[in-house]
Amino acid sequence: MGFRIGNVVLGRHGALPWRYGAADYRAAPKGAELAGAPVAAVWDDELSAAMREERRAVHEEGVVEALLEDLRRGEGVG
């Protein structure tokens, strides 16, 4: 999910970020170079800074195993 969408979902619906912080970004395998104007993540200033530094995307496919393991343990839900 992009920052624009994340900002709306968290702001309007009270959602909580799941594996969507600076440490998660730094640990994830990186994909394509980011393009366009940076957008701040309202939930994590450090994440915004890390992405400005690295300028690389993280795709769900690259972190799917970690997400599935969280679900198996009952984390990241509700």
Order of helices and strands: HHHH
- The rounded distance between the terminal residues' Cα atoms is 18 Å
Provide mean pLDDT, rounded: 90
Structural class: mainly alpha
Quaternary organization:
single chain
The domain tally reads 1
Strand content: under 5%
Can you offer a commentary on this structure?
Helix content is 51%, strand content 0%. It is mostly helical. The protein has one domain (3-72). The mean pLDDT is 90. It starts with a helix and ends in a 6-residue tail after the last helix. It is built from 4 helices and no strands.
Brief descriptors of the model:
78 residues; 0% strand; single chain
